Amino acid sequence: MALSIRLSRGGSKKRPYYRIVVADARSPRDGRFIERIGNYNPLLAKDDEKRVQIDGDRAKHWLSVGAQPTDRVARFLDAAGVRERAARNNPKKAEPGEKAKERAEERAEKLKAQQEAEAEAKAAPAPAPVEEAPAAAEADVVETAAEETPAAEAAAEEKPAEA
Q: Model's pTM, two decimal places?
């Protein structure tokens, strides 16, 4: 018979409470168990001593008999000092997916193209500074046009009067 040390859920909806039990690996999660060796209340603060309570002697007994703890229970046993748990290493955990890699490449290409365009704009010769004399000449043209406009208006007013 394969034994496992695992969590059995209790409590009401959205208010979980777990019992740490030794059970046959084939029995349902919340079903029949052999012995209750502790409990776990995830609603309590992480530093609260009542969050995880394990009977260490019984846990050692069941481990010596061959019971296999689940990953979560193995963490609890390690914290209680009953059984050492080897740290795992998953180097691909933080690696982004294929789509994210494609988006990152596209962003890098756009940024590179933008930087090249900025570099070309800086390298291109700046247009020659415009002299102030032509600007003054344009101002004279505007003034002469303003002087002619009232005369043209006066001539326009006189013609309908004559007619």
A: 0.55
